[in-house]
Each structure stands twice: as C-alpha cells, then as structure tokens.
Amino acid sequence: MNKACSSLFLSFLTISENEEFGRFYCYDGHDEPSSSDSTQIIYRASDNRKGGTSPRIGTLLLKEQPNCFCVSEEQRSRICNYCFREKSEGMKLSRCKACKYSHYCSMECYNADQHLVECKALQKHPQVTNSMRLMLKCFLSCKTVEDVEKIENLSPKQSMKDIEDLKQLAILFCDYVKELDLSISLIGHRKTDVDYLYLLFQKIQRNTFSICNDEMNVIGSGLYVHTSLFNHSCVPNCTVLFDSKKNIYVRVINSNIKAGEPLTINYVDLLDVTPNRQHKLDKQYHFTCQCPRCTSTVNSEERNTHVESMLEMANDFKQKNQLQEAINCYSRVVSKKKSSPKLFHDIYLGIALNALAHNYVELGEFEKAYHYAVESLPLLEQYYPEFYPILGLQYLMCAKLGAHLEEEKHHQARTQTTSSFTPNISSQWFQKAFPIFSKLFIHEDNTPFDVLRRNQITF
Ligand SMILES: [Zn+2]
Ligand SMILES: [Zn+2]
Ligand SMILES: [Zn+2]
Q1: Which residues pair with 242 in a beta bridge?
Q2: pLDDT digits (tens, 9 = 90+) for 97-120
Q3: Which ligand is nearest to the CA of 123?
Q4: In Å, how far are 35, 122, 177, 202, 227 from 208, measured between CA atoms?
Q5: Taking every annotated instance into account, which residue ranges of this chain make up the domain SET (predicted)?
Q6: Which secondary-structure segment (H or E) carries 61?
Q7: 126 alpha carbon, closest ligand
Q8: Ion ligand 2: residues, CB < 5 A
Q9: How far is the CA of 79 from the centre of ligand 1 (A)?
Q10: What's phi and psi for 306, nearest 5 deg?
Q11: CA 280 to ligand 3 center in whole angstroms
C-alpha cells in the first residue's frame, strides 16, 4: 500500500502491509493465506491506553475526495455537474449547448470538468448510463502513474466469474468512446481493450459509493479508493457521510468497538430483509455476508414477494409523480399488516410507513406526515444503528413537522380566542436528533447541523 494514503487517514488509523503504526491497524488480506481478497481495516487499541479502547462516537476515521465522480442522470439538470452545488434561488445552472446534457454553475466548473471529451460522447449517446459515464471519468482521471496504480490496485485484482451484464457494458463502452481522443489518459490506449474494460467495470462496480446530499438523497456516484477498503456489515460500527464538496467522511457510530474488531460500513440499505440484502451484496460485491444479523437464527427475515410487488408498484407511481396512487399502495401494505400482523415481516411495514410520511410531506399534508413519521420510528430504530444519519434525519423530520403543527395550533388558539393547551410535541424529537447531528454531521461546510442552527433551534 503506498505511503501517500496514510496521510489521508487521521493519525490513529493507518493503513499498511502487516505493519502497525497507530491505534488502528489495517492489513492487506492478500498476504494472509486463509483470508478473502478484500482488505480489512481493524481497530487495535494502543498499548499505552488503558481501559476504554473503543473510539468515541463521531470519531472521524477517514476523509477522502473521489478519484472520479459523476452526477446522477436523474439529477443532472438541478446540480452543477462538477461542483455538485444544487440549483437554488440566486444560483443558476447553464446547460451545455453542444450536448444539452450537462449543467454547470460557472465557466470554471465547465473547464474543470474537462467536459469537452465527454461532451463529444454525450452528443452521440444521450441515453448513456451512469456507470458508463463514470467509467469515462475514470479514464480521464488517470493522468499520472500513481492515478493508474490506485485504480489498478482496486479489488478485484483479477476478473471474477462471468458477469454477463458487465461484459456487455464493456462492449458498449468501446462504442461509446471509440471516436474520442483519450490521449490525456495514461490508460487511454486501452479504451477498446474489452478484457481490460471488463475488469475495470468490476472494480468500479465494487468500489463506487453513491454520493448523497444533506437529506441523504442520492445525487451522484464516485470512486473512493480508500473508503472502499472498509468492509460491509448489516450491523455496521461506522458510517459514511458526504459534504457538499463530494468529500466522504467515515465516522464511528458505535462506542463499544472491541480491539481487533473490523471497522465496517454498510453497502446496502439496512431497512430490507436478509435475503434481499444478501442478494444485492452477492450481485454487486460478490460475497455472502456473515454478519450477526445475516446469521441470526432468532429473527428470521423472510421475503414476501406479494408485498414487495405492492411496494414496487407504489414506487413506480412515485417516480411518475402520482403521489396519491403511491399512497394508496403503501396504505394497503399498512392495513394488511394491521389486520394480520404475522402475514409479513415488520421491515416492510417500516418501509411503507416511512414512504407514507415522505409522500404526505410532498403533498403538504403535515399532520398525516407527522403521524406516519412517528409511527415509523420504532421500526427504523430497530434496524438502523442508534447513531445513524438516516435515523437522525427521521427524528429531525418528526421535529420539524411537530413544530409546524404546534405553530398551527397556536395560530388557531389565537384566532379563536380560546385558551387551549398546545402540547410541545417537537422538542422530544429535537432532543433525539441533536446527538446524532452534533456527532456525525460536523463537516466544515453546510450541513443539516446548520439547518438546526439556521432555524434557531436550541436545546
Ligand atoms: Zn459548479
Ligand atoms: Zn456538452
Ligand atoms: Zn449481513
């Protein structure tokens, strides 16, 4: 592992080849005869520190910029394709006149994105997929020998068993770039080498992170070569967050990490049943998760395909902006569960309640939204770790909706000149949200933590 990467990690988390530097220790799985091909990051308490060995909640383990990135297809007209600033009042985005695809907030961003190369490809292939665009960005990012090494050192080092759709992607990519001048890239001469592209697509598929905004909505994807060294667990002890400059932050979310325990993040959504999580992990990352939740025999999380198709239908309506139809589907799931609680797993109820809350927010029906958001909390609390960004956001949503309802009740009381009692329903949720926000959302720039401050919410 090259020396340069150690500076990326904070002093106590160092990555090395079987050599201990600090309190954190990482070894390359390749050198261990019996291990898999993935690198593990292991926490090891230092000798000079007695007692409490676990790092504190919120401890920053790694901050990293993406090697290459691209904005999601769905978000491209509302986010600057280079700096990822979101369109807002006072911030205009200009669409590239040539490809009519990419949007930028300034000439600086347009130039910095080296858009000219991609622009030519986009003009011919406007229907291109996100992974194809990320691959081209990956090519363009390889300007020095170190850049190439970083990419080529990613796992898997050799092609895996046959992955048909990636092979197809490699062939499509040849067509996508065949007329482009990729001479600025040190791997540009391999742009039509299908075997090389196939392996590169496997590396990208395995090491790419979805970039999320403050509300945890996916706005793009990026390759983070060091963050991808963290292994997955469905009961993770760390989490990833992003700032608005696409930096990724890995923070500790469990205060009871034992010495020698691997530091883990989650690659897939935790609010899903075990067979589905395992399927996704196998398909994209090619391993079978052996975490405590996946191997638990106490609470088996069985799939229910009927409910899943109902949720899928709801999601399709949502995509088409048919909110009322989506709500009807989610409500059916909720009432089915209430009439026969054993029919399907609680997780599906959690998904439906959470979706109902968000849909009602969009419809401006805040009382209903509040009701469903609060009802979803016990389920989210069960499947997300205690200090988990999404859980923090859910508490914040309850708090904001609660504050809005209080305001309305106050207003009614004033206009009706009755002295009705307005219960303070929001503060309990703010009190739950605050520890998560103050420990996790603490990047230098605009974060939901500032949202709290801007709203002058004090505790
Ligand atoms: Zn910009
Ligand atoms: Zn263009
Ligand atoms: Zn698992």
Answers
A1: 248
A2: 999 999 999 999 999 998 999 999
A3: 2
A4: 23, 22, 21, 10, 9
A5: 167-268
A6: strand 60-64
A7: 2
A8: 96, 98-99, 119
A9: 8
A10: -65, -50
A11: 11
